[in-house]
Design goal:
The complex is a heterodimer. By secondary structure, chain A is an all-beta fold. Chain A is 0% helix and 54% strand. Chain A contains no helices and eleven strands. In chain A, the strands form two sheets. In chain A, strands 2, 4, 5, 9, 10 and 11 form a six-stranded mixed β-sheet that branches. In chain A, strand 6 and strand 7 form a beta hairpin. By secondary structure, chain B is an all-beta fold. Chain B is built from no helices and eleven strands. In chain B, the strands form two sheets. In chain B, strands 2, 4, 5, 6, 9, 10 and 11 form a seven-stranded mixed β-sheet that branches. In chain B, strands 1-3-8-7 form a four-stranded antiparallel β-sheet, with no helix packed on it. Chain B is globular, with a radius of gyration of 13 Å. The termini of chain B are far apart. The relative contact order of chain B is 0.33. Classes of the chains: A mainly beta, B mainly beta. At the A-B interface, strand 10 of A face strand 5 and strand 10 of B.
Chain lengths: 110, 116
């Protein structure tokens, strides 16, 4: 049973464009929703996270939008750059452990 | 700080052989996590330790998998006997505490295991 569904599997965006990755969760008890970024040959690293008491969180070019009623959250990358090319994982948790989505491979092309 | 250290970085073995993956967490971190990453299933938690004690091993796929943490600076994940379906990238992560809302998890570079 997959508790966090992530889409799309892969995404190609032009440099300067907006990248959008979506996640949906099933467990309404989840109260923490992080996004991780993974470069080839490296482990995932925490990028940004949100709690369900807010609908949006922005850090630089990265924004999480959260819709509690729809049980969905998304990552927006504004002004996407080739250096943003990586695999992005959404996750959710209620305490421990983290439950991860399957990942989205983002390619930003010039 | 060197971060989480994993060894080996790559392992190729034949079906039926024993495989041991090693992890050195960040000094001072009290929680250690073992994850497995595959294309089909994504990133899955196998087991985690708090203060060297296994807390949740519900993600360990079967009895062929075992994990130990004999001290605060070392953990192993053992597969015996290995099977081709065990081929994956195995990550170790550590954090100051187990709750990810409070304590960020830091991942190692992973061990890519190929079982032929």
């Amino acid at each position: 049973q997959q508790q966090v569904k992530q889409s799309p599997q892969s995404l190609i965006v032009q440099k300067g464009g907006i990248s959008i990755i979506n996640c949906a969760y099933e467990n309404t008890a989840f109260d923490y929703f992080p996004w991780y970024q993974q470069f080839p040959g490296k482990g995932p690293a925490l990028l940004i996270a949100i709690r369900p008491d807010v609908s949006e969180k922005k850090e630089g070019r990265f924004t999480i939008s959260f819709n509690k009623s729809a049980k969905q959250f998304s990552l927006h990358i504004m002004d996407s750059q080739p250096g943003d090319s990586a695999t992005y994982f959404c996750a959710a948790s209620k305490g421990t452990p983290l439950v991860f989505g399957k990942g989205t491979r983002l390619s930003v092309i010039a | 700080d060197a971060g989480v250290i994993q060894s080996p970085r790559h392992e190729v073995t034949e079906m039926g052989q024993e495989v041991t993956l090693r992890c050195k967490p960040i000094s001072g971190h009290n929680s250690l996590f073992w994850y497995r990453q595959t294309m089909m299933r994504g990133l899955e938690l196998l087991i985690y330790f708090n203060n060297n004690v296994p807390i949740d091993d519900s993600g360990m796929p079967e009895d062929r998998f075992s994990a130990k943490m004999p001290n605060a600076s070392f953990s192993t994940l053992k597969i015996q006997p290995s099977e081709p379906r065990d081929s994956a990238v195995y990550f170790c992560a550590s954090s100051l505490g187990a709750n990810p809302q409070v304590y960020e998890q830091y991942f190692g570079p992973g061990t890519r295991l190929t079982v032929t």
